[in-house]
Design a protein that fits this description.
The chain has one domain. It has 2 helices and no strands. α1 runs antiparallel to α2. The longest helix has 27 residues. The N and C termini lie close together (about 5 Å). By secondary structure, the protein is mostly helical.
Length: about 55
């Protein structure tokens, strides 16, 4: 892994942490069920990108 990939992975980890907090809040309030699905999709996409960066 090069420096750029490590930096991107670090950024994605921070994004996932933030998204998990927002997801927990959205699950408690449940005003918009689509919002919960969107947060879950964003987390899955970020995790997939991390795996892709680790393997390359």
């Amino acid at each position: 892994m090069d420096k750029k990939a490590k930096k991107r992975i670090d950024l994605l980890h921070k994004k996932i942490t933030d998204l998990r907090l927002r997801l927990a809040g959205a699950k408690q309030q449940m005003d918009d069920p689509a919002e919960v699905r969107q947060f879950e999709a964003d987390i899955a996409a970020a995790q997939a990108e991390i795996e892709k960066l680790k393997t390359s």
